[in-house]
Amino acid sequence: MAFVTANWNPLGDAFYRKVELYEMGWSLKDGLRECLVAAAPYGGPIALLKEPQRRSPSARPQLEIYSSSGVTMASFVWKSGVVKQLGWTVCDDLLCIQEDGTILIYDLFGNFKRHFSMGNEVGQSQVLEAKVIHSPYGTGVAIVTGASRFTLATNIDDLKLRRLPEVPGLQGAPPCWAVLTQDRQSKVLVANGADIFILDNAVCTPVNPPGLSPQATSIVHMCVSFSYKYLALFTDSGHVWMGSTDLKEKLSEVDTKVRNTPKQMAWCRRPKSREPSVVIMWDRHLLVAGVCKDTIPYHLDDDSVLVPELDGVRIVNGTHHELLQEVPAACEEIFKIASMAPGALLLEALKEYEKESQKADEYLREIKEQNLLGEAVRQCVEAAGHEQEAETQKTLLRAASFGKCFLSNFSPEPQVCMCRDLRVLNAVRDYTVGIPLTHMQFRQMTVRVLIDRLVYRKLYPLAIEICRYLKTPEYQGVSRVLKHWACCKVQQKEEADENIARAISLKLGEAAGISYSEIATKAYECGRTELAIKLLEFEPRSGEQVPLLLKIKRSQLALSKAIESGDTDLVYTVVTYLKNEMNRGDFFMTLRNQPVALSLYRQFCKHQEQDTLKDLFNQDDDHQELGNFYVKASYQEKKLEARIGLLQSAVDEYNKAKNEFAAKVTEEEMRLLRFQRRLEEEKGECLLGFSLHDTISTLLSLGLHKHAEQLYKEFRVPDKRYWWLKLTALAEKEDWEELEKFAKSKKSPIGYLPFVEVCVKRQNKYEAKKYVSKVTLDQKVKAHLSVGDLEGAADAAIERRNEGEIGAVLSRCSPATDRALVERLNRAKATAAKK
Predict the structure, then answer these.
(1) Cα end-to-end distance, the chain, whole Å
(2) pLDDT(1) > 70
(3) Which residues cross the membrane (predicted)?
(4) Cα distances (Å, whole numbers) of residue 417 to 51, 385, 397, 443, 494
(5) What are residue 117's DSSP bridge partners?
(6) What is the pLDDT of residue 718?
(7) What is the torsion angle, in degrees rounded to the nearest 10, for the CA atoms of residue 205, residue 208, residue 209 and residue 213?
(8) H or E element, residue 384
(9) Which of 458, 461, 521, 453 is nearest to 490 (CA)?
(10) What is the pLDDT of residue 545?
(11) How many CA atoms lie within 13 A of 666 on its CB side?
């Protein structure tokens, strides 16, 4: 703690510090000399390609991948083309950009994933320089070719190549260039001598940085900030210009006193930075140039690489890994010499308290008198998050806890969260893990992404412990990690399928949110079909098993699982797949063994494939259904001969099925059709397709009584039905004379009340009265009432001595006009009631 400020250097109103993160674990004979180096941001891995220009088959370059602490993750001989640039994607995949424009992608462990090309033109003119960029759209690549043309891809996962306009007067590679992200669009900023151009999709626009030193005759280096908001230009006069990337605002210009072209430049600034700066590196010399025009020089013992970060710059060399950053305000307030800030006083109070000195009380009183104890606790908690040393973190958090004891109604949440975050950060900063995240980077990255990175490095136990410690929901945390572990496990080809399946089942158990089908799919992709089937047995959801079973040609099992799921859409999917994959006979035989699938397929065929339905019935010798099929098909035919032919086929099938009733009815339908055709030819009336009922009714309406009589006798229509049909037809025609003849032809099987009712319905009470006398006694009251004969209704009701009928007549009488009749009915009703 006494030497916290030993490595601090002032820059304007702020301080900068260089903190050692790791003593590198790699053994590099010549350091980073003659190496192509790429380090991923957010404490990501480091890739080295030693002597990349080697082309001899006997002495090829060596590609090595390390963690940020120098622990080897992968190493292999590079056997492909000449590499011009290395870079990392946002997902920690390694991009190797070759001279011919081909880009090869490897994972952290050196396993090849895929490749793509930047286009034929790039391949023909060769790559001179390349840059890997990270934007809101993903990982992009920018290339300048031997023809001095730029090609840009903003997202390699959705590759769309953009060939940018030419730069006036540019020959060969430009002295310096950078990629900007402005207005949701990636652009290239190019310097050619003293001129600067912005290239977008369509135009090349010249721009002039405001306030650039007149001594400069050319711009030799440039860099863009981590957030793409700020730009730094280094000129041949040794000046570094700093401003906004839209080149409309100048922040500062500093004379570095060095005219040599830098090897590398990087912005060093944090969000809400008080003194942002640009770090400029030459051979064995580093300079921090602030906006305030002050500088801090550093000597470098070895060849180094600068890695821009959200809140600083990492410096990697052959032996050490350091972090250069502006000292956070909270740390400065607490540790600055002679600081009287509340946090500094609280830290001193803790030290005195631990010495059992009364000065602790004096410090506390001084803070409390200013009402700044809460601010002091906040400063200590915040400063702890910015420190790398665990002991310093603990001291600051103890000071915060000490101050909190003297506060009431102070939320402990910030301190609890910071303790939790620091425990996670210290775990991943460990040398064996090698992810040197700062607290600000951790908050920006989110826990989910950190877990993904640990999983990608196959650090499953640590990932699970962090998920449990942070109480991450299981499906987002532990279950997700276990799924990745299982997908990795199935790739271990040296283990037997049975052992791997058992190990995965035991480890995953009943973990929430894990789909065994996804793991089985991974096993199948690795060529382990039997393992995939074994893993699918653990999948509780049948619907999840089916797609993969179809993919691995286990269609019978897929059909069984689909039926178990109860999802008819899924069953239809499998049946459709089987239909396309199998020959017709095997397909039908398969369905016969699955009644549910067969039934659903029949339903489908009824609406979509009638011919297939017929084949299904033939395959099963289902004569009854075949007969039904022919009957339904007959109604689709317009020609009589075709319809009768289908009906005859139906008769044959019904006979085979020993369904005599269906065969007889179908034969009668055929006779009726022939009769209708004959009638149509003789009378010109279109009756084809009418039912027997409608045919008779129509004939009666047309006055063709003999033909109707013929149908009545030939088809043995019941008497009651025929009388009703004829009665209705004659009444509708108002053929009262024919109706009277019909009523007298023989005794009516339906009685004569219907005659009365149809006449009344047609507003003809005169005709209705003709049939009242023929109505049976029990219906006479109703008949008389229908024709409005109250006297007759009263006589009939009194004669029958029926109290209900007497009441019905009374309800129709008017006391004013039918007084005598009412009295008579009332007497009869009273007499009927006594009995």
Answers:
(1) 122
(2) no
(3) none
(4) 46, 10, 12, 11, 44
(5) 102
(6) 74
(7) 150
(8) helix 373-386
(9) 521
(10) 73
(11) 27
301: nearest Cα among 556, 67, 33 = 33
How far CA 448 is from CA of 385, 454, 463, 464, 470, in Å, comes to 19, 10, 10, 12, 11
Q: CB of 320 within 8 A of CB of 354? A: no
Rounded distance between C-alpha atoms, residue 365 and residue 403, angstroms: 11
For tokens 């793991």, what's the residue? 519
Burial of 601 (0-12, 13-18, 19+ CB in 10 A): buried
* The two structure tokens encoding residue 531: 């393992």
Amino acid type, 422:
L
Residue 214's SS3 state is: coil
Phi, psi of 619 (to 5 degrees): -60, -35
**Amino acid letter for position 154:** T
Q: Centre a 10 Å sphere on the Cβ of residue 799 and count the other Cβ atoms it contains.
A: 13
pLDDT tens for each residue of 631-658 = 676 676 667 666 667 677 677 767 777 7
**Under 8 Å between Cβ of 239 and 253:** yes
CB within 8 Å of 635: residues ≥ 6 apart: 643
Q: Which residue has 């977008």 as its token pair?
A: 200
Tens-place pLDDT, residues 397-433: 999 999 999 988 888 899 999 999 999 999 999 999 9
**pLDDT higher than 70, residue 461:** yes
Q: CB of 507 within 8 A of CB of 482?
A: yes
**Structure tokens given for 340:** 């009287």
With a CB cutoff of 8 Å and minimum separation 6, the contacts of 57 are: none
* 3 state SS of 779: helix
C-beta separation of 781 from 793 below 8 A: yes
Q: Is 305 helix (H, G, I), strand (E, B) or coil?
A: strand
3-state secondary structure of 522: helix
Phi, psi at 572, each rounded to 5°: -60, -40
User: What's the pLDDT tens digit per position in 314-324?
Assistant: 999 999 999 99
Which ranges of 405-527 does DSSP label H, i.e. alpha helix? 413-429, 439-445, 447-456, 460-469, 478-489, 497-508, 516-525
- State phi, psi for 798 to the nearest 5 degrees: -70, -40
* Cα–Cα distance for residue pair 22/70, rounded to 1 Å: 8
pLDDT, residue 307, reads 96
Contact between 595 and 571 (Cβ < 8 Å): no
Bridging pattern class, strands 250-255 and 162-163: unpaired
Tokens at 220, concatenated: 């030799």
Report which of 58, 149, 137 is spatially closest to residue 90, judged by C-alpha positions: 137
- 341 with 379: CB under 8 angstroms? yes
To 5 degrees, how large is the angle CA 794–CA 798–CA 801?
Answer: 140
Instruction: Give the sign of the dihedral formed by CA 147, CA 153, CA 158, CA 161.
Output: negative
What are 243's strand-pairing partners? Answer: 231, 250
pTM recorded for the entire structure: 0.73
Question: What does the block give as tokens for 551?
Answer: 């993919």
Res 441 pLDDT > 80: yes
* DSSP H helices in 595-718: 595-608, 610-620, 623-634, 640-656, 660-683, 692-701, 705-714
CA distance 537 to 670: 57
d(CA 400, CA 422): 15
Q: Which residues pair with 140 in a beta bridge?
A: 133
Which class for 681: exposed (0-12), middle (13-18), buried (19 or more C-beta within 10 A)? exposed
The H or E element spanning position 49 is strand 46-50
DSSP per-residue string spanning 533-582? HHHHTT-S-HHHHHHHHHHTT-HHHHHHHHHHHT-HHHHHHHHHHHHHHS
Residue 814, classified by CB atoms within 10 Å of its CB into exposed (0-12), middle (13-18) or buried (19+), is exposed
Closest CA to 503 of 475, 480, 476, 531: 531
Nearest to 166 by CA among 148, 142, 152: 148
